From TrEMBL:
Pfam families: HTH_18 (PF12833). This is Helix-turn-helix domain-containing protein. One of its GO terms (molecular function) is DNA-binding transcription factor activity. Keywords: DNA-binding, Transcription, Transcription regulation.
Length: 52
C-alpha cells in the first residue's frame, strides 16, 4: 500500500487527472475506497492534498 500511496501522491501533484481516474489507475474498484485509504494514509483528502 505504501507504493500505491506514493504513486497517488505523485499523480495528484503532477497531473490534473480527476481523482476517480487516479483511483481506477491504482486498481481501486470504487473511488470512495481510494479516498478513505488516502485520507487514512496522509491525514488529508486527495482533493486537499492536491491543493496544498
Amino acid at each position: 500500500m505504501h507504493i500505491r500511496m506514493q504513486v497517488a501522491q505523485e499523480y495528484l501533484k503532477t497531473t490534473t487527472l480527476p481523482i476517480k481516474h487516479i483511483a481506477y489507475m491504482l486498481a481501486y474498484t470504487e473511488p470512495n475506497n481510494f479516498v478513505r485509504a488516502f485520507t487514512a494514509y496522509t491525514g488529508q483528502s486527495p482533493g486537499k492534498y492536491r491543493v496544498d
